[in-house]
Amino acid sequence: MVVTMALLHPFNRTARTTRALQPLDGAPLPADDEVLLDAPDDRLGHALVAAARGEHGPAAALLAGTRGSADWEMRDRNARRLAAFARSRPEWLQRWTAADPHDPDLLLVRAQLEVDRAWDSPARAELLREVSPLITAAARGDDRDPVPWRIALDHARGTRAGHKYFGELWEAALRRAPHHYGCHVAALRYLSESWQGSHSECFDFADLAAQDALPDSLIQALPSRAALACLTDGDGSGSGSVPRARLHAAADRAIALSARFPVADPWPSPIRNKLMYVLFRLERWQEALTEAHRIGPCATSFPWDRLSDDPLAHFLRVRGEIRARAAGAPPPSGHPRSERGGRAASGDH
Fold first, then answer.
1. pLDDT tens across 117-175, in order?
2. Which H or E element spans position 36?
3. How many helices (H) and strands (E) does the chain have?
4. Domain boundaries, the chain
5. Of 178, 126, 127, 118, which Cα lies nearest the Cα of 149?
6. What whole-number distance in Å separates Cα of residue 118 and Cα of residue 318?
7. Residue 345 DSSP label
8. Dmax over Cα atoms in the chain, in whole Å?
9. CA dist., res. 64 & res. 195, Å (int)
10. In the beta sheet, which residues pair with residue 298?
11. Of 73, 123, 301, 332, which one is least surrounded by beta carbons within 10 A?
């Protein structure tokens, strides 16, 4: 495919001092009632509390700060969380729109919000096409910013755009941030659908990206994302055409990345939650338990909301089985892979 060659992009290798490893302190796992789902960090938490009061200032300042410092990964995550909050509490966003309709940070949140809304509709493709001008406006707000291009990549997948067009968007995203994790995840999802679930090709893309990324880049976790798809696709019973050794290698990469961050840190929690499930499915009990300790109280909706209608409860059930199996106890009845017949839902766009 033409898009394959465009996406298997030769990344630049550079050196960087890595974070010191963070040893576990041997403390017990947090009690079930201490675990929180999608707990924000302090700055995002402050912005969400203010938004609940109808105030947009802290959210605007938060996103302006990420744009000023070119912290594109944090910008992407905050834009997603703010857009999700605006779906149920839109007053603050409406006030922001009235006050400064051309603010590039506002345009970014609005573009994400409208893509999210359209994605859940039976008329997804038609509604997404109507969002195109808003995504274009967000991209023009700051030409350095790759996040609107990540939104554009998701948008292209939702409208079933052709490979040539998607490849052009991908190249534009790479010019702005060659190692942006969100854009790589968007490309991985597109490739998965383009190849009708051919996981081997998706692994090729993820492995190449990880090999050429810096050791502390979130892209090191991209192969484990491909592994998660393998383990939850179809009937969820196995890896299909992907050798088991490749799944283990993907988990090893993500373990090395996770070890670079502090325990119970909200920032790497999305990576760690996915990794814990992959290790659980690979029956690597001790390493899965280590990730449960590193997660601490920071559970995330994904991947658990793709496996159950009660993601926090499912996280706790899997964590409980990991703890029991790591201690040598027999497996409990009702293996908690998924409450949807083993198959993860496909709604995570």
1. 999 999 999 999 999 999 999 999 999 999 999 999 999 999 999 999 999 999 999 99
2. strand 36-37
3. 16, 2
4. 196-349
5. 178
6. 32
7. P
8. 60
9. 38
10. 36
11. 123
Closest CA to 183 of 40, 73, 266: 73
Task: Report the C-alpha gap between 18 and 35 in whole angstroms.
Answer: 29
Closest by CA to 200, choosing from 178, 165, 159, 229, is 229
Number of other CB atoms surrounding residue 308 within 10 Å: 20
Q: What amino acid is encoded at 55 in this protein?
A: E
Contact 2, 164 (CB under 8 A): yes
Give the separation between CA 55 and CA 45, rounded to whole angstroms: 13
| CA atoms of 267 and 105, how far apart (whole Å) | 21
Nearest to 3 by CA among 196, 229, 194: 194
What pLDDT is attached to residue 213? 95
Q: What is the identity of the amino acid at 328? A: G
Angle between helix axes 244-258 and 222-232 (nearest 10 degrees) is 130
